[in-house]
Amino acid sequence: MAKRVIDVKLNFPGLLPPEKMASGNLRYRVRVEGDKKKRITLTVPPEHPEFHEHYHAARRGIQLKPTQTPVQKSIRGSMAWLCYLHLESLEKKVAAGNASPLTLKKRRGLFKRVIEECGDYRLEMPTHEVVKLRDKFQHTPALADDIVDALSAMYKEAIPHICTVNPAAGVGRIYRGKGGAVPWTVQDLRKYRETHEKGSQAHLCLTLFTFTACRISDAVTLGRGNEFEKDGILGLGWQPRKKGSAPVEIPLMPPLFEATRAAKVQGATYLLTKHGKPYASPDALGQHFRRWCREAGLENRSSHGIRKAAAHLLAQEGCTQYQIMTIHGHTSAKTSEVYTKGVERWKLAKDAMSKLEAMDW
């Protein structure tokens, strides 16, 4: 393919015609403005995105070096090189709407640690080195397992193109967990509402979480634009931002409807900052929500705990795991089974034992 020809006279005064070097490459030079004898060699070709910047600097007598991406700066074939390649790929997926920005943010933090610990290793490091890396973070076991998960995801993507094996596959987890987020009790909900009056953003926030069971990543975007009417019923619908979640459509319950209309300031989203603008990120809303919880004397409480409490309440009211799947946006029955398993077993046992009542013993 022929290289693009530049009109040096019209667009770039002082840019000399390209010179073909012995290597076959073209060299571009620029006369310094005010000094025709002095020439600056450009370090990037015309098709480079930084060409205009380099050209104008050369006219002032300054030679710029091309900006290198992290991938270009890394040793080809190293762990750092592969990590940066993966992040570049993930950035493109986020831009195309095929991956979550939250995933990208988390992976950046995890791979920063990987690069600090073993960035110079060969990219196909043996499994025992992955285990060694995991064990360096034993004091923060959840982080250690997140690193292994991120490495495994990276290798799965790279195997068809760069790697032949996934050294993170089969590496065991060291975090056993303690049940995750603490589910809110009825007393917790009452205590919070007694502290934060109706019409406040704090009250609206709790109401939104309780009557939608949405994740905090969705709470920052929900607003009147998500409302719809079906069969004469006002509803609320959205596509959860978490990858793999199913679309959610639920009735807009009266308490939530009243709370959204009672807010003193109305905007594009239900939840607004003190400046009347949507929250910039889920983290920003999370910081405010934790403060509102502390003001109500509730420590170690989170929005996800409300989501879990809602699932338990739905199960206790007789909802099946498939009904909970619909409300929570789950696509796997196993996820919702966590909340219904104990309740359904008791109901089945109670129904089964009732059959014995009429036995002639």
From TrEMBL:
InterPro entries: DNA_brk_join_enz, Integrase-like_cat_sf, Integrase_catalytic, Tyrosine_recombinase_XerCD. GO terms for molecular function: DNA binding. SUPFAM superfamilies: DNA breaking-rejoining enzymes. Signal peptide: none annotated. Residues 179-353 form the Tyr recombinase domain. It comes from the Bacteria. Pfam families: Phage_integrase. The keyword Membrane does not apply. GO terms for biological process: DNA integration; DNA recombination. Keywords: DNA integration, DNA recombination. PROSITE patterns: TYR_RECOMBINASE. This is Tyr recombinase domain-containing protein. The lineage of its organism: Bacteria, Pseudomonadati, Pseudomonadota, Alphaproteobacteria, Hyphomicrobiales.
